[in-house]
Design goal:
- The protein is an alpha/beta fold and about 260 residues long.
- It has one domain: Bira Bifunctional Protein, Domain 2 (BirA Bifunctional Protein, domain 2, 2-Layer Sandwich).
- The chain contains eight helices and eleven strands.
- Strands 7-8-9-10-6-2-1-11 form an eight-stranded mixed sheet. Strands 4-3-5 form a three-stranded mixed sheet, sandwiched between helices.
- The radius of gyration is 17 Å and the shape is globular.
- The mean pLDDT is about 95.
């Protein structure tokens, strides 16, 4: 069940829907989620943010400890991707403007609840959104995938389609997800070089996208299905970005640049 949030007359919790800013500086993109989480935890409400990114390689703190991090950064740039530092754990992930990025932020009253249960719940929600489009999507890690995660969403048990991460603060949590809709070749190419530089083992054939399984699918169709999946559990209320959140994200953005 969702964590406590305001509940509408429909009996489903309300989520304020925020979009964009699409095509923003990738460092600003990664700063907006934590800024929104801080705002929510301070009593600002619960939010679903959906945006379209620029080509990005999101590196983690563990990646930055590698003695070859400068080579990985240059490899990302050479492929036309902006390297940035993300706050969550795991390993490097890559995506293009053909991805759908999601930050789901909610207030947590008392304990954070079962973190694994939350991963699984939202993995199922997003897998269901793809299944409704006829894609064989499943929750679970593919052996050899990039940025491996127990609750990744895969296609046909062989390619990674969605990666998820979670961030917790006092009185709030955020589940972030990236749906790779297309551009498999670009994602696989940059990750092949970045993972080589970082001396990380993986199987490049596990990097995939929705259009590998449904070639006629486009980003708009996937986004529509994701929103429909959310609307079965929440009431999405279109909102405007709080200026205080934008200001806080601008302050945080330099911390995400590499």
């Amino acid at each position: 069940m969702p964590d406590p949030a305001s509940v509408s007359d429909a009996g489903r919790p309300d989520l304020t829907l925020l979009t964009g800013p699409d095509g923003a500086d990738p460092a600003m993109d990664l700063a907006l989620g934590p800024a929104l989480l801080s705002h929510a935890a301070a009593g600002g409400g619960s939010f679903l943010r959906i945006y379209q990114p620029q080509p990005t390689v999101a590196l983690t703190g563990r990646d930055r400890l590698s003695p070859a991090i400068s080579s990985a950064v240059e490899s990302a740039r050479r492929h036309g991707f902006t390297p940035v530092r993300r706050a969550s754990g795991g390993r490097a992930a890559a995506y293009t403007a053909q991805a759908i990025c999601i930050d789901h932020v909610e207030i947590a009253e008392g304990e954070f609840g079962n973190i694994k249960e939350r991963f699984y719940r939202f993995g199922l929600l997003l897998a269901g959104a793809l299944q409704n489009l006829g894609v064989d999507a499943r929750v679970g890690e593919v052996p050899g995938e990039y940025c491996p995660g127990e609750y990744s969403v895969n296609g046909e048990g062989r390619i990674k389609l969605i990666g998820t991460a979670q961030r917790l603060v006092r009185h709030g949590w955020m589940v972030s997800s990236v749906i790779v809709v297309s551009d498999t070749a670009a994602v696989r190419g940059v990750l092949t070089d970045v993972y080589r530089d970082l001396a990380l083992d993986w199987n490049p054939s596990t990097a995939g996208s929705v259009t590998d399984l449904a070639p006629a699918m486009d980003r708009a169709e996937v986004l529509s299905s994701v929103l429909a999946a959310y609307e079965r559990e929440y009431v999405l209320v279109p909102g405007e970005w709080p200026e205080s959140v934008l200001a806080e994200a601008r302050r945080r953005a330099p911390d995400h640049r590499v």
